What we know:
9% of the residues lie in helices and 46% in strands. By secondary structure, the protein is mainly beta. A 16-stranded antiparallel β-sheet has the order 6-5-4-3-7-24-19-20-9-8-13-18-14-15-16-17. Strands 25, 27, 28, 30, 33 and 35 form a six-stranded antiparallel β-sheet that branches. A hairpin with a 3-residue loop joins strand 15 (192-203) and strand 16 (207-212). The longest helix is centred in the N-terminal third of the chain and has 25 residues, at 31-55. The protein is elongated, with a radius of gyration of 29 Å.
Amino acid sequence: MSVAATGANGWCGRPTAADAGGDGVRSRDDAAGSRRRGLWLAAVAVACGAMHAAAADGVRVERADGAFVEGELRGIDADGVALDVDGAPQRLAIADVRVVERVPAGTPAGMAALRATLVDGGWIEGTDLAWDGATVRLERPDGAVEIPAERVRTVAWRRADDPADAAPGAAWSATLPESGSGDLIVVASADGQEMVECAVKGVSAEAVTIVLDEETIPVKRAKVIGIHWLRPAAEAPGGISVGLSGGDLRARRVEWGTDGVVLDGGLRLPAAAVTRLDWSTGRSLALATTAPERVDVEPWFGGLSGVPGLAAALGPRVLPAGEGMPRGGLLVRPRTTAVWRIPPESRRFRAAISTAADARPGAAAVLVVAIDGREVERRRLEAGPDGPDGLPAEALDVDVAGGRRLSVTIDFGAATDPGCAVRLAGPVIEQ
Length: 431
């Protein structure tokens, strides 16, 4: 196998004759230098191989316009995503990227020995953990994770009697006090567990070092089943969702390079651990989970519209996430108008629309979308002769740039017909 070296231009290539010693004749005096040079070249070969492996991740990119691009990932920075698509370089601006997903998605990490939970609610699992200084190092089968110590709130080790479907430490985490004056370690005892308030100073393979009553005490690691650090309240989690095999994190900035993945300039992950990066999480307002600014309901039996509570009961109903609706949705009956405030810098309103599952055959409804009172979209939706089954949902994609308020009205299909409810799957306003 040939040995690769890095030349002045930074690319990996074969060693030159000069690298081998000019005319290939080695004297006894330069033997040691040649051995050192050989070790250096071997190290560079390994580094170049790692660079190539890190840079050749197959990914599928969902763009903001709904199109998909597949290729080999070459890097991600604050401005864009670099790809090789069919051998040609391509760069997508971050503003035009919704999701980057590994292809294939990767294998889940499986049952882990421990779980670290961060101050913003993110979590990641691993096989071992050590802390001495500013960085917590978490070992995983796909590589080591380095986390700034101030971002770690809780570490829980899995016990032999923990339920297989429960997170490590789920039982004792639920009993943590709401406030305290120091860190806590959770120690296994004959009665189950004991929480000790102290100051945690370090974690190694052998011990958890604590300070209690001004005395430094090493506690055997085998006895410790959990650590909970006293940390200040976290800021709101970042808008980029980072999916992992055995973890779920949030970030404000993602960098993907030859050394792996870096979140917010401090948390370092092996590239193999990351399965999905979703920018749309922080750029979208999910209408299914956002209360409208105003709702007006005029039921078919209008004479009863003044009955207290009736209009609210007939207002938009939230549909939970499920098959065909990974983001959940809304069920809206005619005649209803719901108004939401549009966040600054928003660009699109998107949803998949269809008649409700219980619509009677031939029933119809009219959907009207308006921006600041100006109608921009009108659709008539009809259930088929056998009801809505088999009718595909229609894509709704409306430009909301510059608007302040979005109104969605579901009206009766005809003046003499009560019509049917309409389902809006995954309704979001996206930046």
